[in-house]
Amino acid sequence: MKKLAIFDLDGTLFDTLDDITSAGNYALDIMGFPTYDKNSYKNFIGQGLKHTCAAALGKNTSEENIDRMIELYKKYYSENKVDDAKLFVGVLDVLDELKANGITLAVATNKSDTLAKTIVERIAGEAFFSYICGSNEEIYKPDPSVIMKILEATGLKKHEAVMIGDSEIDLLTAKNSGIQSVFCAWGYGERNCKTKADYYIEKPTELINIFEI
Predict the structure, then answer these.
(1) Computed from CA positions of residues 98, 121, 139, 69, in that sequence, does the dihedral angle turn out positive or negative?
(2) CA dihedral for 190, 19, 40, 49, sign (positive or negative)
């Protein structure tokens, strides 16, 4: 029986695309570079903030510009927090049921640790998740370190855990960690990931069947 649900954040638990788009475009606008719509940002995110900024800068990518964009991006978030972020429909009820049935809940994200905790606690509260693990801006998923930290912190085994996410990065993180994966079709990722996951779900309530509760 699975005992640990490890969730990705962006595109899995929370719809944060509007906030990401606003922060990215705020930085690009100040720097005098073209901005993008949120559908473009779907292709930029998932591998950490540095990758997102490099992708958005395009031909203007340089270490100096990436560092400046990251600085401005973080400034926007510090001043606006998570104004537009929201839980996907149905997620809250599923978290409630999993928690009520003794499933340990955790978050593994490439967002910074501080920002991840801000978003989770502001929108979902502090009650659901036993462990929230963001990046340290040097090591990102699909590196398995984040999963190993969660397993160590919770005291649970690999066969008891499952990684739930909306991108190939999440599926690779699970594979590299030796745990099973769930692909969420409601997120930002491509549905061709279906064959690469141990489980494929169209809506949050289908998670209940995976945990056999």
Answers:
(1) positive
(2) negative
Say which CATH class 17-80 falls into.
mainly alpha
Domain map of the chain by residue range?
4-15+85-210, 17-80
With CA atoms as reference, report the closest residue to 3 among 104, 124, 119: 104
Tokens at 142, concatenated: 């699909």
Q: How many residues does the chain have?
A: 213
- Looking at the domain 4-15+85-210, which fold is it? Rossmann fold (3.40.50)
Tokens of 33: 């570079």
pTM: 0.90
CA distance 109 to 115: 10
Q: 86-87 and 14-15: which strand pairing? A: antiparallel
Residue-wise pLDDT for 4-19, tens only, equals: 999 999 999 999 999 9
Closest CA to 93 of 208, 212, 209, 213: 208
pLDDT tens-digit map of 174-202: 999 999 999 999 999 876 777 889 999 99
The packing angle between helices 49-57 and 17-31, to 10°, is 50
Taking the C-alpha atoms of residue 135 and residue 115, their distance in angstroms, rounded to an integer, is 10
